[in-house]
Every structure is written in structure tokens, then in C-alpha cells.
Amino acid sequence: MDDAAILKRRGYIMGINLGEGSYAKVKSAYSERLKFNVAVKIIDRKKAPTDFLEKFLPREIEILTMLNHRSIVKTYEIFETSDGKVYIIMELGVQGDLLEFIKTRGALHEDDARKKFHQLSSAIKYCHDLDIVHRDLKCENLLLDKDYNIKLSDFGFAKRCLRDDNGRLILSKTFCGSAAYAAPEVLQGIPYQPKVYDIWSLGVILYIMVCGSMPYDDSNIKKMLRIQKEHRINFPRFKNLTSECKDLIYRILQPDVNRRLHIDEILSHGWVQPKARLLFSAAIDKDGETSATPILEASGVQESPWTPEPGPDKKSATKLEPQEAQPEMNPESQPKEEILQEASRLLDIRSAVPMEGRPSRDTEEGGALKPADTHTS
Questions:
Q1: Fewer CB within 10 Å: N-end or C-end of the chain?
Q2: 278-318 pLDDT, tens per residue?
């Protein structure tokens, strides 16, 4: 029985092809029960590699069945046929993904970026509170519904965090995600907190939202890592970003993992909470000063160094476990070749699975904003 017949028996009228890989494809379909269009990911176990079947697919299915948040793509049904095909019925991102949206329309106004970033941050807090980490946060995985609200998608590399006998999160050692969105500790092969890694990726996404370009050039990983570790961030002058927005990005893209903001601190930041914005300057003056000043590098234009407004470096009530086992960053250390080689080993797994839950687009890539290359391990 073909896919259309199988879906018809479950109450879905199959539509157009949204994407296809070597062992998976994504179709649109109309749900007779829900009365609207959905996306259907179809995975053929007979064609899928062992790594995917034994590790990635079981994790994804387990996590998808747990999630229920307004800013996360909904999973309506998962079923499998006797011939080894897995069908995942999920919400359709009718307006495409955030990357294509920004490539087409340019950087978002801060008010629009604030709304979308708050939606995304709320979704990440929900996941982190469940000890679930996404590990592949990027603009391509942020779908837009009919009202252009954010819907976090693609949990193919997500996992449940493990804890030791004392209840502390166990550090991760594997490279997972896209280099352009990867934190410096991950690129260096340093044992890392996966939740803290997700936070760095949030900072890259926010920068892209308000600047319309990537904060770092991943064509030269060695140079990118050096710039990251020096805490250098370029805020283009012509964007006229508010100091609050720059402050938030600067604090998220913090190479020192012990000083990088937690998700609760992001959600309570003055830029994210409009009602708190008028009190932002007064509150930060009262609570203390920052010790670092970022160095800005404008593309072709020299810009005066931007000094982050003084603010608390205090941790929120909901804390991540201390990084006791994590070594200090060595300024001279470089990305470990074995890490990047291991990342490339499973690259075919990601490329073989089509992007889910979004309509296909023929927009050409252009400029500095481009889809990120994904690496896994």
C-alpha cells in the first residue's frame, strides 16, 4: 500500500511534496479530523542507517510525544506500518522558516524581533525545565505560522539531559549542531553544559533577527573562535540598535560559560520585557557594574567601542549546575580536528532527512545570510 492510501485510511488526504532525502520525505496533507493542512514526515526504516535508527529516531519520537507548548511545532500523531515506515504528523509552518523570511524582508524591527525572540525563549525554557536540550537551534529550524509566530521545530538532535547521583547535569563532550551557531566551548572540544550551549545559539539567532546578517563568519573556524573568545561583536551602525538590545546580545554571546545568561535571566531582561524597559537603566545602575567592554568591528567602517550598560551578573533562582568538571579555556587552544572529523562522519544523516513542516521555497541564497551547515555526533 502506498503512502497516499495509508494516510487516507488514517484520515489524511496527501498533498504536495515538501522535501525528500535518501530515506525520508515530508509531504503536506489535509487532516479530515483537524480540518486544516499538516506536514507528514515519512521515514523508511529499511533505507535508514543504523546510527539514525538506534539513536536519533528513538530520541526524537520520545521527545516529540512529551512536548506541548504554543511556540513548538505540534505533533498530532505518530504511527508505524508493518513494512517499517514511520509517519510523524505535525504542524505545518505555512509561512516558511525565519531564515527565508529575513533573507526576503531584511532584518526585523526590534519590536517584531522582541515578540519572536520572547516566543522562542519561552519554548527553550519549557524544554530546559524538562531537561530537554535542542542542540540544533538555528533560523532554519524556526517555522512561522499563518500569523508569523515562531514555532520551534526539528528535534532530530535533541536529547534528555542526564544527571549524576548528586542530581547535577552531566557535561556533554560531543559536537552537535551547526558551526555558525556553535559556542566556543563546543568548537574547542571542552566538556560543556548542553543547556548553556543552547543559550549561545539563542544569541546568534537574536543577532540575525535584528542585524539581518551572521555575527560570525564560519568560513574560517579558527578565526571565528578567536573573535568569539575575545568577546568581540560587530553591531552595524546603520541598524541603530538600542543599547538594551546590544546589551542582551552581548551578555548571551559570552564566551565565559559561568557568566553567560541563563534562560530565566534572558526572559527577565529589560529588552525582552517591555514593561521593564523604562526601569532598565535605573535598575542596572543600582545593582552594579560590568567588568568587560566589547570591541566592535564594523564591516568596512570603524565604530566606536560600545560599552554595555552596567548590570547585575547575578544568577537567577533556577540555576544550572556548576561547571566543576569543565577546564578553563586556553586562549591558544584551537578547534580539535578529531571533533570536526567526527562531526562530518554523521553529516549524511542530517542531509538525508528533509526539512520538516515548511512549504518548499525557490528563494536563492545570497549575501552573508545563508543556511548553516549542520554537523553531528
A1: N
A2: 555 545 544 444 333 333 333 333 333 445 544 444 333 32
In the chain, at which residue ranges do the beta strands (DSSP E only) sit? Answer: 12-20, 24-31, 36-44, 75-80, 85-91, 132-133, 142-144, 150-152, 159-160, 177-178, 374-375
**Which residues are known to be catalytic?**
136
Residues 6+ apart with CB under 8 A from 50: none
**Closest alpha carbon to 147 in 94, 87, 206:** 94
Task: Point out the least confidently predicted range of 75-89, 132-146, 154-168.
Answer: 154-168
For residue 112, give every residue at least 6 positions away whose Cβ sits within 8 Å of its Cβ, in sequence order, or none.
Answer: none
Residue 75's CATH number = 3.30.200.20
Range of the domain at 225: 98-327
Q: How far apart are CA 78 and CA 76, in angstroms?
A: 7
The response to whether 41 counts as a known ligand-binding position is yes
Residue ending a domain, choose from 311, 327, 343: 327
> Is pLDDT at 4 greater than 60 in this prediction?
yes
Cell of 24: 525520508
209 closest CA partner among 276, 271, 262, 300: 271
Residue type, 22: S
Do residues 119 and 234 share a domain? yes
**What whole-number distance in Å separates Cα of residue 174 and Cα of residue 376?**
8
The answer to whether the CB of 370 falls within 8 A of the CB of 140 is no
Q: Provide the pLDDT confidence category of residue 165 given band limits of 50, 70 and 90.
A: confident
Residues 206 and 375: their CA atoms lie apart, in Å, by 21
Rounded to two decimals, the pTM is 0.79
- Residue 364 cell numbers, joined: 536563492
pLDDT averaged over every residue in the chain:
82
CB atoms near residue 150 (< 10 Å): 25
